[in-house]
Amino acid sequence: MSKKNVTIITGFLGAGKTTLLNNILEQGGDEKIAVVINEYGEVGIDGQLVVETADTIVELNNGCICCTVRGDLVAAIGELVSSGRPIDRLIVETSGLADPAPVIQSFVLDDVLKSHVRLDAIVTVVDARHFRGQVAKDEAREQVAFADVLLINKTDLEDAASLDATEREIRRLNPLAAIHRIRDGAASRAAVLDIGAFDLKNLLAIEPDLLGDHAHEHADDIACVALTIAEPLSPDLFNRWFARFQQARGRDLLRMKGVLSFEGENRRYVFHGVHMTADGRPGRPWGAGEIRVSQIVFIGRHLDAAEIGDGVAACRSLPAQAA
């Protein structure tokens, strides 16, 4: 039985990993692709945003696959490849806070995985606007250093001088990887799939301790607040609350994302944000019989869960009280 290629997509919070994944899937044709998505919070948003062309989606939530749910990653992929399901390739999207080293270890040290899959490439997505402010973080540096392919995303948001400065910083951390500048996660499949770029010997030259123990710890001040709201939200109330909240706490907000149920709307509203930048737009229609709830995740420093929960709850569109 031929081994299946595995592509790992990594990158810091809000870089555009899921957008890249969707672009790859939409170019997939008849290929059978299994996707494993890891999210830091207990509420999975990214799995809801993956296009329906993925044949199998496995979500590993409430922890990072580099530490707390690493065993789940090995078990999930082991089950996928040994189940007899028709799978042509696997794509793993890591949490934005993941250290790539333990994830790589899983594929080069685990006997079950080694017998069924081949690690093809580590693809790291870089946020053109925010990377130079993120590079002080260990995770952001490691995600770049271990990459075989680096995609500088959101290039439409920065000028040429800024993009050149970002690329120089990236080259300082990783002089060997291929670099592509893209916007809206639009990379070609030829740039990221079946490229045979993963080379353990090269990585060991960069990180001799790659195959040793990696006890990855997340900063104590980073927290995740995940909310599920059953009642529809008022778009006016939510937009006003969110604008105030982002203005007050934007520097501490590493990542925001959600799928919202707005009053009077038959389509899901999808929003993303990083620090002071946020974007929202209508998504697909709610399905027949689909439970309409709003699910929102905030990842950041010194977040007050009660403050956020009360703020979003106040945006509910509740029936008027009878006089």
UniProtKB/TrEMBL annotation:
It catalyses: GTP + H2O = GDP + phosphate + H(+). Zinc chaperone that directly transfers zinc cofactor to target proteins, thereby activating them. Zinc is transferred from the CXCC motif in the GTPase domain to the zinc binding site in target proteins in a process requiring GTP hydrolysis. Residues 222-316 form the CobW C-terminal domain. CDD domains: CobW-like (cd03112). GO terms for molecular function: hydrolase activity; nucleotide binding. Belongs to the SIMIBI class G3E GTPase family. ZNG1 subfamily. It comes from Hansschlegelia zhihuaiae. Keywords: Chaperone, Hydrolase, Nucleotide-binding. SUPFAM superfamilies: Hypothetical protein YjiA, C-terminal domain, P-loop containing nucleoside triphosphate hydrolases. GO terms for cellular component: cytoplasm. This is GTP-binding protein.
